[in-house]
Design a protein that fits this description.
Number of domains: 2
Strand order of the largest sheet: 1-2-4-3-5-6-11-12
CATH topology of the largest domain: Rossmann fold
Shape: globular
Order of helices and strands: HHEEEHEHHEHEHEHEHEEHHEHEH
Largest sheet: 8 strands, mixed
Strand content: 15-25%
Number of helices: 13
Number of strands: 12
CATH class of the largest domain: Alpha Beta
Structural class: alpha/beta
Length: about 400
């Protein structure tokens, strides 16, 4: 009977994982519907990507002249330049807008751009152009970034003497692929919720390892049993709290999860992951993903999360002199430090300056997934960029 309960619980957790994966893919409702406003001192820009698609954005400008620009690269989702990825209902939900203002106050230009097919400042019903958003692929995302990077440095663009690349989540993967393409080295790279491991490893962890990891982490007295009391007291301190649901993590017998129970959860989720992988591989590469109405990419992009086993840190290592600053929260629900730290150190060595922030999540806020970012950490990152900027010669 207990085995049946464990399997049912594993399926319940997996369903919730699928919901979170959907958020990771398409962006939260708040991120798609919240109103946006322009920075007080900003200039608009447009660039053409390699395939001719027009990419729009803005630069938050410091007072006076600037020598260094920070190009900000969003993670997975139908995000505009503000990257509204929170649920507080405040301006602080706008992760890139918040950081952009901090950067500008320190004398740096913050270059933020809209994902292809996303119209900035439009209502929910008109903010997406499906004919364009559905053209996104691994290649176009890197090429869109390349076009903005060139503009930020170019004489006919922002004319920055040096550029820092800043990425959140999958944005760091786009930066890594830019490095592998042979693009000029930037002054530095800063990543939040960064990918150092491979896309394949990251998605597998999300879909079939995260819940077991979290259940074991709740066993605070390390006696090999995660009791109902431990779950109730500590579930918010784990990556799986991103679901905002306690019930699926309560022990199946009402008393405690044993290590055998948790292993069974992982076994069942591994099987479901394999089913999802096989289903993804059957998709036509050019088909819209996740659907025709709100496509954010072609299916080849989604398939790559099951097949791409090249660590992002290995690609970043193509830039041999660029310092890399990676920040993770200890309860990151998407790209946990336990999966990424070792890989970053292996491929980047001493050039990698790694920080794990206790009690913070994927966007370096109190939630395991969402912004707002912790204000002290936001200032720390902005100060880090300003320190890098002083090395521009």
């Amino acid at each position: 009977m207990k085995s049946t309960h464990v399997k049912r619980l594993a399926h319940d957790l997996m369903r919730l994982t699928a919901v979170l994966a959907s958020i990771f893919i398409t962006g939260s409702t708040a991120a798609q519907m919240a109103p946006t406003t322009q920075a007080q001192r900003a200039i608009e820009f447009t660039v053409s990507s390699r395939d001719g698609t027009v990419i729009k954005g803005q630069v938050d400008l410091p007072v006076g002249n600037h020598r260094v620009a920070v190009v900000m690269v969003a993670g997975t989702g139908l995000f505009d330049r503000d990257v509204n990825f929170g649920r507080s209902g405040t301006e602080a939900d706008k992760l890139f807008k918040e950081l952009g203002h901090r950067l500008a106050s320190r004398g740096l230009a913050a270059v933020r751009y809209d994902r292809r097919g996303v119209r900035f400042g439009q209502s929910a019903s008109s903010r997406l152009d499906p004919a364009i958003s559905g053209t996104s692929t691994l290649e176009t995302q890197q090429e869109d970034l390349a076009a903005v990077y060139t503009w930020a440095r170019g004489k006919n663009g922002n004319r920055a003497k040096c550029v820092i690349l800043f990425g959140h989540s999958e944005g760091t993967l786009h930066i890594a692929r830019l490095a592998a393409s042979g693009a000029p080295e930037p002054l530095g790279v800063i990543g939040v919720g960064a990918l150092a491991a491979s896309p394949q490893a990251v998605l597998r962890w999300q879909m079939s390892k995260r819940d077991a990891f979290s259940l074991r982490a709740m066993d605070v007295n390390r006696d090999g049993k995660t009791t109902a009391a431990e779950v109730d007291a500590h579930w918010r301190e784990t990556p799986s709290s991103a679901f905002d649901m306690l019930a699926p993590f309560l022990p199946p017998d009402g008393e405690a999860w044993t290590d055998k129970d948790i292993t069974q959860v992982e076994v069942v989720q591994d099987r479901i992951y394999e089913q999802a992988r096989l289903a993804a591989l059957k998709l036509d590469d050019s088909a819209p993903y996740p659907n025709l109405v709100t496509p954010m990419a072609r299916s080849s992009w989604w398939k790559s999360w099951f097949t791409d086993d090249i660590p992002a840190a290995k690609l970043l290592a193509k830039w041999q002199h660029t310092p890399i600053y990676f920040h993770w929260g200890s309860i990151d629900s998407q790209t946990p430090p336990s999966l990424n730290e070792r890989v970053a150190r292996e491929w980047l060595g001493r050039r990698a300056i790694l920080a794990v922030h206790p009690g913070l999540g994927h966007s370096l806020g109190a939630h395991a997934l969402y912004a707002p970012i912790d204000s002290r950490v936001a200032d720390e990152i902005a100060d880090q960029a300003a320190s890098l900027a002083r090395k521009c010669s």
